[in-house]
From TrEMBL:
It comes from Knoellia aerolata DSM 18566. This is SUF system FeS cluster assembly SufBD core domain-containing protein. It holds the Pfam family SUFBD_core. One of its GO terms (biological process) is iron-sulfur cluster assembly. Residues 134-362 form the SUF system FeS cluster assembly SufBD core domain. Belongs to the iron-sulfur cluster assembly SufBD family. The lineage of its organism: Bacteria, Bacillati, Actinomycetota, Actinomycetes, Micrococcales.
Length: 391
């Protein structure tokens, strides 16, 4: 039996789209195209289901088959971690998923090389791996593979800043029993464009946490896809975004449960302020007939700070077996809670400080799970700076 479900919670805020008819997918996620051939992905028009929220007219440079330049890169690699490159033939044998949209396949086709980050089996570096990528206003493509060996435990922080027109395919293949936290931070300049496909393959009994933090850029659109190479795997996808006036921030999740007795948990939170600020969250979970014992849940919360902002939230469950441990989703969008603000002000806290405390509390449950204190502190300071412009 196949069950297609899409039932987001409603909101009184008029900028939140929750028409059930608009949310029913046009096809199973299992039927979506994946390919290494650019010709298999026409240039999006905006009428396609997967592009209908995205301002595709502003992204034409990332859909064209045009060579770009690499972003400037700085890295810190602790013991047990190496950086190298692969040929296209070696990449095809890596077991990583194929590109799933036009921007990703162009990135693969136009990237200068396949950059490979290897974490040795059983390595447990005390310091996080840190990679910073800085744009200098040019068109850029990246094709990156992260391979984590069996029973390794590692945190990887990937940070983006500067200005660029940037598309990427990032694949993370995690060995059996490994424990990986990947934090991707988008602190682009206001004019930057960023389209990314992040694929995570979770090994048998492995644990993977993918954390996406988006605080800048004109358009940022990240597709995070998870699949399982064996039973017992656990995948957690967490996200924080703060959209200002004119910014479009879009996060799409697809968790493909094919192996039995695996777990997934998705939690994304966004705050929006300013005219035409727009966030999009789409969470698709597919539980195939073979995925007995699956336990999955996804949650999206959006906080509207000013008039003129809009949040679209679309959770979807597709279930092909009744033999599961649990499956559910929730979505809500609302205005700033004036009662919380009043409560704090009644205790002598000025309005600006009270507003900052409420928003900090909204994000703290996710930021506090990154596990890298200096990164957590930096992000909360960045959120404070965003709040300085709130009316």
């Amino acid at each position: 039996m196949s069950l297609l479900a899409s039932k987001p919670q409603t909101s009184e805020y008029p900028g939140h789209t929750d028409s059930v008819a608009a949310f029913v997918p046009d096809q199973s996620r299992a039927e979506r195209t994946t390919s290494y051939a650019v010709a298999d992905f026409p240039v999006p028009s905006g009428r396609e289901e997967e592009w209908r929220f995205t301002p595709v007219d502003r992204l034409q440079s990332l859909f064209a088959e045009t060579a770009g330049t690499a972003l400037r890169r700085e890295e810190f690699l602790p013991e047990g971690v190496t950086l190298s490159s692969l040929s296209r033939e070696e990449w095809l044998a890596s077991g990583a998923p194929k590109p799933a949209d036009r921007a990703a396949v162009v990135a693969v086709d136009q990237a200068q090389s396949v950059t490979v980050l290897d974490v040795r089996a059983e390595a447990q570096p005390e310091e996080p791996v840190r990679i910073s990528l800085t744009g200098e206003g040019a068109l850029s493509h990246a094709h990156t593979l992260v391979r984590v060996g069996q029973f390794a435990k590692v945190t990887i922080v990937l940070r983006h800043e500067g200005d660029a027109q940037y598309s990427e395919l990032l694949s993370v293949v995690v060995g059996d029993g490994a424990d990986v936290t990947l934090v991707t931070v988008q602190e682009w300049d206001d004019t930057a464009l960023h389209l990314g496909q992040h694929d995570v393959v979770v090994g048998r009994d492995a644990t993977v946490r993918h954390i996406a933090v988006t605080l800048g850029g004109s358009i940022v659109r990240l597709n995070t896809n998870a699949s399982y190479a064996g039973p017992g795997g656990s995948f957690e996808a967490l996200g924080v975004s703060f959209a200002d006036a004119g910014q479009h921030q879009e996060h799409r999740l697809f968790v493909d449960h094919e192996a039995p007795h695996c777990r997934s948990n998705v939690e994304y939170k966004s705050a929006l302020q300013g005219d035409s600020a727009h966030t999009v969250w789409v969470g698709d979970v597919l539980i195939r007939a073979s995925a007995e014992g699956t336990d999955t849940y996804e949650l999206n919360r959006n906080l509207i700070l000013t008039d003129g902002a809009r949040a679209d939230s679309v959770p979807n469950l597709e279930i092909e077996t009744g033999e599961i441990a649990g499956a559910g989703h929730a979505s809500a969008t609302g205005r700033f809670d004036d009662q919380q603000l009043f409560y704090l002000q009644a205790r002598g806290i000025d309005e600006d400080t009270a507003r900052r405390l409420v928003v900090r509390g909204f994000f703290a449950s996710i930021v506090g799970r990154i596990g890298v204190p200096e990164i957590e502190s930096h992000l909360m300071e960045a959120i404070d700076r965003e709040l300085e412009g709130t009316a």
